[in-house]
Specification:
The chain has 8 helices and 9 strands. The strands form 2 sheets. A 7-stranded mixed beta sheet has the order 3-2-1-4-7-5-8. Strands 6-9 form a two-stranded parallel ribbon. It has one domain: Alpha-Beta Complex (Spore Coat Polysaccharide Biosynthesis Protein SpsA, Chain A). Helix content is 38%, strand content 20%. By secondary structure, the protein is an alpha/beta fold.
Length: 246
């Protein structure tokens, strides 16, 4: 039986051949300094570039690096779910391949997990920590979307969409077992599930810098995420998020 680890870092990746080398270098350096009992899981979401080949090459340099494949392009939400269910760490963190939130900021999330089950990075609690802003259109769309998230889900958070979240496992495993949304709208769903299952969630301000190479299309994906909010409410009403038996 494979022994458990202290920490898993999950990186969803779709055509990330260009950005992954720097991400892997920085994450592995962070783990070597303070988290020797750890692993990095890159989830290849049906990439058509050299993402899988690159990770295989880097496995020679990073012993704790794992590659899991979705087989085809399924979406970021599916990739995060896949990686988190594969994670062997007592704590599991997912982060974007662009490291818009520097990996060193994970220390803030881990500190929050001392009194919480879920810790989420936030760009909106302290906006002075934003080093490179999104366009005004993207920032305004984010504000409107967060307001709608609160309206539809009752979630109290300032920023549900920051791709930098950590979870105490196995307490949080039920979130990803029940997660159904496979695209960018999965963040409100996993936070809704955390609340539904009585998990304590802390929102933590983190440093963040927008990467202009983001794969989120401000109009198309915003509309999809709005549709996903309706789906969250429907799934809850339809009994698709059953509470665990006590």
């Amino acid at each position: 039986m494979t022994p458990p680890l202290a920490l898993s870092v999950v990186i969803p990746a779709y055509n990330e051949e260009e950005r992954l080398p720097l991400a892997l270098e920085r994450v592995s350096h962070f783990l070597r300094r303070g988290h020797p009992s750890s692993e990095i899981i890159v989830v290849d979401d049906g990439s058509t570039d050299g993402t899988a080949r690159l990770v295989a090459e880097w496995q020679q340099k990073i012993p704790g690096l794992r590659l899991v494949s979705n087989g085809q392009n399924r979406g970021k939400g599916f990739s995060v779910r896949h990686g988190m269910l594969e994670a062997r760490g007592r704590v599991a963190l997912f982060t974007d391949a662009d490291l818009s939130a520097p990996i060193d900021e994970a220390a803030k999330l881990f500190a929050a997990l001392e009194s919480a089950d879920v810790a989420i990075g936030s760009r909106d609690i302290d906006r002075t920590l934003i080093e490179i802003h999104q366009s005004r259109v993207r920032e305004f769309a984010g504000i409107i979307f967060n307001w709608i998230v609160r309206l539809f889900t009752g979630l109290p958070f300032h920023d549900t969409q920051c791709g930098f979240k950590a979870f105490a496992m196995p307490e949080s495993r039920i979130i990803f077992e029940q997660q159904r949304i496979e695209d960018f709208g999965f963040d409100p769903e996993i936070l809704f599930l955390a609340r539904r299952h009585g998990l304590r969630t802390a929102e933590v301000p983190v440093r963040w810098a927008h990467d202009a190479r983001t794969k989120v299309h401000v109009v198309r994906d915003s509309l999809r995420m709005l549709a996903d909010l309706f789906l969250i409410r429907w799934n809850a009403l339809a009994g698709r998020y059953p509470r665990a038996a006590k």
